[in-house]
Design goal:
alpha+beta, eleven-stranded mixed sheet, 4 helices, hydrolase, FomD-like_sf, Ntdp-like
Amino acid sequence: MTSTDPFPLSLPSGTRAVGREPYGRPGEIVRWRFRRIDFDRFGGEIVQPMRVVREDERGLVLWLAGDTPTAESRLRGFEALTARQVPDGIRFAHADRALARVQVPSRWYGGGVLRIVPAEMPFSVWVFHSDDGRFRGWYVNLEHEHRRLGTTELFTSDHILDLTISPAGVIRRKDEDELAGALEHGMWDAEAVARIEANAELAVAAFESGHWAFDAEWTTWLPDPAWPVPGAEHLDGFLPPTPSGGSGAVGRVGCVGRVGRGAPAD
């Protein structure tokens, strides 16, 4: 089974698939950039600076530290609300009826998250731990196959539907109601949703076959304590200027805990 991206994604020229050189070195900064289906029309993208743990022909492993400054994409008129707080008919509107997007500053809260990006796969794997360090399971975020630009940029698009996998291997689907909302209100068509569903099955098969992204080594991995939290300078050009003396932050994304999550929900 091979993956198929559910819709075209606007990307700059010169991108390449993950798993191809040049590779980033451990500790270098990568900007993870989530784009939407309507990026060409409205712009706006989620930008999250993180550090390279490992990159080679198998894929890319990254560390997003807690309290990292990020750029979030919000609907105009709903800037203070997260995506899940916006009514579905507005959040999932077809591009012809959708509201414009604005960039707002935020931060990743919690203890940080390890993200594993396997080459030629339509997902990333996010590793969970509790506050006391116990492994809690994997979060599989369904996404476009990832594209690299140089060694500083990584592009993808979130597909709403996700999987959670317990340490015992119990697999559950997450946010099926939101995927249905995206279809009902016209953001995606039935073909796109069918491809996302097929990619979910591909992710399940990868886990069950022992894909390296689920290797036990990542369940005990810890970040280099010498790595500082990336600064706001890595968001230069992605946020509008803020008034002097104000932080401009409107909220935080992530999850309380030693290793948390805050998957983009469009």
